């Protein structure tokens, strides 16, 4: 927002903060209505449950593939933690320096803590990501 002076900018900013606060304090209810519809319909619930199972199985498959590629690239290192962990995210144990190297040299993004989004892996990128991980772990 462009204003002619600081005083007017401060007034506009105050109004924007007030507007945003109302939005965050009172989120829309339609998501809750959709969830209620799904939970109260045996057919929709079964469809939703099947989709959740498919997502879980895909994430498990990505963990297994990541484990397989890394184990093939660095056979003397134990990567079982990838298949023992559960959920959409995984902890790699990488240092901040290794994470930055992944980012700078391979455009693979993890949190500085070494946490990665396993759900973001797919059949098109998993070998590239695993090779990049193997390279920074050598």
Give the topology string: H per helix, E per strand. HHHHEHEH
| Secondary structure tally, helices | 6
Output the CATH class name of the largest domain. Alpha Beta
How are the strands ordered across the major sheet?
1-2
Number of domains: 2
- Span between termini: 49 Å
Strand content: under 5%
What's the CATH H-level superfamily name of the largest domain?
Aspartate Aminotransferase, domain 1
Protein name: Putative 8-amino-7-oxononanoate synthase
Family: Belongs to the class-I pyridoxal-phosphate-dependent aminotransferase family.
Cofactor: pyridoxal 5'-phosphate
Keywords: Aminotransferase, Pyridoxal phosphate, Transferase
């Amino acid at each position: 927002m462009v204003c002619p002076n600081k005083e007017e900018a401060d007034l506009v900013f105050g109004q924007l903060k007030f507007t945003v606060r109302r939005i965050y304090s009172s989120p829309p209810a339609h998501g809750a209505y959709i969830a209620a519809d799904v939970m109260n319909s045996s057919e929709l619930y079964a469809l939703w449950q099947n989709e959740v199972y498919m997502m879980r199985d895909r994430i498990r498959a990505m963990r297994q593939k990541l484990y397989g590629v890394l184990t093939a690239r660095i056979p003397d290192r134990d990567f079982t933690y990838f298949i023992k962990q559960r959920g959409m995210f995984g902890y790699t144990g990488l240092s901040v320096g290794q994470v930055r190297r992944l980012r700078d040299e391979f455009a693979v993004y993890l949190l500085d803590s070494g946490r990665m989004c396993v759900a973001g892996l797919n059949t098109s990128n998993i070998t590239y990501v695993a090779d990049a991980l193997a390279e920074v772990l050598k």
